[in-house]
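Notebook, student rotation project (T.W.).
Task set for the rotation: take a protein with a known small-molecule partner, predict the structure of the complex, and write up what can be learned from the model alone. Partner molecule chosen: coenzyme A. Sequence and SMILES entered below by T.W., checked by me.
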Amino acid sequence: MKLQLATRHALFAILELASEPERQLSAAEIAEKYDLSTNHLAKVLRTLGRAGLVEASRGVGGGYRFCGNAKRLNLLDIVQLFEPIWPIGQGMSEPGDRTRKGQALRRVLGEIEEATRATLSSITVDTMLKIARRIPDAPAEDMIRRAAALR
Amino acid sequence: MAELQTLSDTAQVVIDPVAEADLAWIEALDAQITGRPKPDYWRRLFEGARSEPGRSFFLVARNGSGRVGFIAGEIRAWEFGSEPCGWIFAIGVDPDNRLRSVGTQLFDAVCDRFRQAGVTKVRTMIAREAQLILSFFRAHGMMAGPFVELEKDLDE
Ligand SMILES: CC(C)(COP(=O)(O)OP(=O)(O)OC[C@H]1O[C@@H](n2cnc3c(N)ncnc32)[C@H](O)[C@@H]1OP(=O)(O)O)[C@@H](O)C(=O)NCCC(=O)NCCS
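Predicted structure of the complex:
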């Protein structure tokens, strides 16, 4: 499954901010770590702000802070702010859908979509951070840590 | 999870094998959660756990004033080539005692028994729309396994 770029920006921003809820980070700092476009991320952060998931602080050194509930906010909640993940049979109809073979195809694709929804909706931000902590080795983060140590 | 919880949030419970006298309470809690009483099923689980205590586990959590939750699981081996592993097939916590780690303590207790019996994996099967219980098991680090569950209507 491939997520749209805006969705990936949003997930990384939320996960990064939620991993240290007291800390404020600017769009540029998050963008640098995840190799994202700062402009695009700034737009995404505004959407997340309107959804009440992040808070911008004004003034010099201002940045964003996570203000959602990491134990209740799930990945589907975030993904759906940027792209639709339809419940079974509710997506837009497509050419061929009214044929037998089209219906068979819808059933099979619906199976995949249902599994996707169940997966995304059962993983909270808190659970996702736990999964990330269990990943033993991430080359990009090691690089960032080394660069920070040299500064 | 534990690191984010203050101690006072955690219910103090004792976890024991289910006794015959617990069955009515488990049946009532399950009926309250699922809307379907199934006394024969709970009795079979109870008898299974009593006759094979090293393989089949049916546990109840009690606090000072009574019962607050239960969990059932067993070790199964070689179904479709699967190595022996622990299966959890029922869990329930009294609604007034939720979010105080009773479910977690039951999960840990059954996993300890699986470990003592020598298995290294725990598995479960949950309805896709059961988001609460799916989130609970996910929060304990469970991910989709390598098996796919299939079904069909027999009169199709
Ligand atoms: C799922 C269930 C067992 C959880 O029991 P519990 O004692 O409340 O669970 P815990 O307090 O140990 O919660 C552990 C973690 O699960 C997750 N969780 C529990 N309830 C949650 C909820 N309502 N929403 C999201 N996550 C939840 C959280 O990550 C939680 O961690 P936290 O306490 O740090 O927030 C309980 O809600 C229940 O019995 N539900 C009904 C089960 C059912 O349908 N059974 C059918 C018969 S088998």
